[in-house]
Design a protein that fits this description.
Blueprint (H helix, E strand, L loop, with lengths): L6 H14 L5 E3 H19 L8 E4 L2 E4 H7 L6 H5 L2 E4 L2 E4 L10 H14 L4 H9 L2 H5 L6 E3 L2 H7 L5 H17 L6
Antiparallel strand pairs: 1-5, 2-3, 2-6, 4-5
Length: about 180
C-alpha cells in the first residue's frame, strides 16, 4: 500500500462521522467503516489521496479499512490510544472524547459530511449491498476469506488514469517521512 495509515487523522475522521450521528454520538461500527471507506474512495477520486491512508481489504461484507477494523476489535498496537477516544459497545462505537479536527483539512471534513448526508438514511446492510456493487470489490471478491484491494484497482474504478503517478508520489512521501522520522504504522 503506497499510502501511510494516519492514526490521528483517522480518529478525527471517525469523530466527525460520530458527531454527525447526533447527540448520542454513536453508530454501528460496520456502517461507520463503510462510510469511512466511501469517503476515502471519494477523496482518492477527487484528489488522488485518501483521508485515512488505510489499507483496503475485500471481505465478505465488502471493502474494509484494515487498521480501522483492527482498532475497533482491539487488535492494533494503538488500540489503547483509540479507546481513549472511541469505545466499542457490542456492534456500536461511541465517541467518548472528542479529538478535534486539527489533522483534517476543510476539504476532508466536507467530504466526510457529504458522505454522511448522502448515506445517513442507509442501514449497515444497505451499505454492504452498495459496496458490493463497487468495481474494486467485485474484482477482488474474496468469497468467505479476505483479500487486499490494490490501490490501482480503486483508482481505476473511480476513473483515475494516473494511478502509477499517484503511487510513485505516495512512495516518495513515505520515504521523506521515514527520513524525517515520521511515525509510520
Amino acid at each position: 500500500m503506497p499510502f501511510r495509515f494516519d492514526f490521528l487523522k483517522t480518529v478525527q475522521a471517525v469523530a466527525v462521522l460520530l458527531r454527525l450521528a447526533g447527540a448520542h454520538r454513536r453508530d454501528n461500527y460496520m456502517r461507520l467503516i463503510k462510510l469511512l471507506y466511501i469517503a476515502d474512495r471519494r477523496s482518492l477520486q477527487e484528489t488522488g489521496r485518501p483521508i485515512t491512508g488505510d489499507r483496503v481489504v475485500a471481505m465478505k461484507h465488502g471493502p474494509v479499512l484494515s487498521n480501522v477494523l483492527d482498532l475497533i476489535n482491539d487488535r492494533h498496537h494503538r488500540s489503547g490510544e483509540w479507546a481513549s477516544f472511541i469505545e466499542r459497545d457490542g456492534f456500536e462505537i461511541a465517541l467518548v472524547q472528542d479529538p478535534g479536527n486539527s489533522e483534517l483539512c476543510p476539504y476532508e471534513v466536507d467530504v466526510l459530511q457529504a458522505v454522511w448526508t448522502e448515506h445517513c438514511d442507509r442501514d449497515p446492510w444497505q451499505l454492504v449491498d452498495e459496496t458490493h456493487g463497487l468495481a474494486e470489490w467485485r474484482k477482488n471478491d474474496p468469497g468467505e476469506s479476505s483479500k487486499e484491494i490494490p490501490i490501482a484497482d480503486i483508482l481505476e474504478a473511480v476513473g483515475r488514469t494516473d494511478a502509477e503517478q499517484i503511487e510513485e508520489d505516495a512512495e516518495a512521501m513515505n520515504r521523506i517521512g521515514r527520513l524525517l522520522g515520521a511515525d509510520c504504522e
